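At this stage, I needed to go through a protein sequence along with its fold in token form, as given directly below:
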Amino acid sequence: MPKPIGSSSSRYMPGLDGLRAIAVLAVIAYHLNLDWVPGGLLGVSMFFVLSGYLITDILLKQLGQKKTLDLKTFFIRRARRLLPAMFIMIAVVSLWLWMSDSARLFALKGDIGSAFLYISNWWLIFHEVSYFESFGPASPFGHLWSLAVEEQFYLLWPLLLLAVIRFVPKRGQLALWTLAAAAVSAGLMALLYEPGTDPSRVYYGTDTRAFALLIGAALAIVWPSWKLSESLSSRSRLTLDTVGTIGFILILLMIGRVGEYDSFLYRGGMVLLAIATAAVVAVLAHPASRLSRIIGSKALTWIGVRSYGIYLYHYPIIVLTTPTAESGDFNPVRALIQVILTLVLAELSWRFVEEPIRHGAIGKLLAWLKLQMPSRIYTPSFKKSSAYFAMIVLIVSSVSCASSADLQSASGNSSSNTSSSATEKPDTSVEATSPPVISKPEATVKPKPPEATPQPDKAVTGSTNGNHTNADKPANNGSKDNGTPKPEPTPKPEETPAVSIDQDSVTAIGDSVILDAGPYLEKLLPGIVIDGKIGRQFSHAADVIEELKKNNKLGATVIIELGTNGSFTTKQLSKLLDAIGPDREILMVNTRVPRKWQDSVNKMLAETADNADNVTLVDWYTASKGKKDFFYADGVHLKRHGAEFYANMLAEAI
């Protein structure tokens, strides 16, 4: 028969701090773009399971001791633990931005306001800010979405637990109901996820991520830390450590092999990770576990104890010290400096903010103020009025921040995820460059002297309307030169002469990058049909092909320039190739975009070119290597000489 919920004494569990350390290190590795840690984002799921377990463990212990929940004390302790350190981090980062880039700070008001209210994740969802496919300078507060999810859980779960326990007083039944709620959340993630599209909605959502917290909560119901005894047989101890080791190995394998675009991740993968984490937590929470002594080593527990501060500071430091054009690259020297700076600030936060406040620093400060202030002023009514006033100021300022950002977004400025953008005039200097690399040499045409230089303002045929996203605006952070130094004037490169071809024999389909090169392509390839659209995803390409076929505008040679705005699936790629057909020559241009999906896009295009007889890969990634002056500050969109080179490359491939 299931036992009723009870209580005992609490104890320190170093293994859980060690697991915290592993989780936060995985997240840092992911944000530093380490190729061998594609699943570092799963560290957040590990945090969720840990939080669900520990919070429920605390609540059930209190419920067993007092037969009720002291919600006031619980919320005050949570606020003391979380709020001061986060507020100081926001203040420090805001001060830095105010001194270095006030325009960017203004653009981030919505992020700051939503962070104060712990609704960052829903703010990002409603403003369609991608976690995976955003361009321009990232928001240094973008990582606070996960703290918002946890805080929402802290606010709602105690109330739900208190209500449900009255009807389901037995631990086994309560655990089953909790797991049922987790299954609903996991099912919602699988239902809302669409393969080949940006998964940010299901990644951010409290509704679609609650299962990890609830799995941790269910574990606390059936495996309370304060009921575990050190007296365990050798066989049971071996079984315990074996389960924990298997779970830990599974966590490491997923962190090292599963990427953010894998459908498996959103259709059961994160649930598997949460279950594996729960198994490890169960073992590490047991005082008889040998695995706990390993993972609870001094080095890992040092990091784990400071994991909150590390998480708070690592992302702003990475964002503010990494050039936008290099945000998808790993620089070992810069990464080392960023990690050291993160650890220093986290140590300062833990030593002078988090620990003092946990031990009553605020109460001592108020007591000191009481002695300093006249007794007629420092009264209970004054304290209550001051608290109400502070709350009103916080709410009003947060809402006004959100409203200001909305107005700014509506007037054409960048979203909360980026700073304000402006288009830089094309740089007229040109660099002498070597011919681009093309995977099939027989398709290469050697460049010859040009007849004339095309005008950069020439209109481009095709669709130029659509959803304008950050992916299609050079970000300048308020500076005139977009942060990219102007190159020294160099001799003009050779250009491919105009080619005499039949009308509509060449069709180019792409996004804003093909639009950048459009005027020069039209000069070099008269009659070319260019269908470019800002923000276009690869998933839209097959429909574009069908429309061009319908209007008799699909040429014998088709250029596909897509992948700038996100990854795609093999199914979508196959659908595109089938739509074009085997009778046409296809030139697929790979991408240079400083984001995580760059390598997966280029790998898939290269494999396709190797396996299909009518597909040739045009290696823009290699051809543009080291040519920083080709690009605006975002490292994607082309200046004039970059667009000219790009057009020459495609003309040579024809």
In short: The radius of gyration is 28 Å. The first strand starts at residue 437 and ends at 438. Residues 449 and 494 are 5 Å apart (CA to CA).
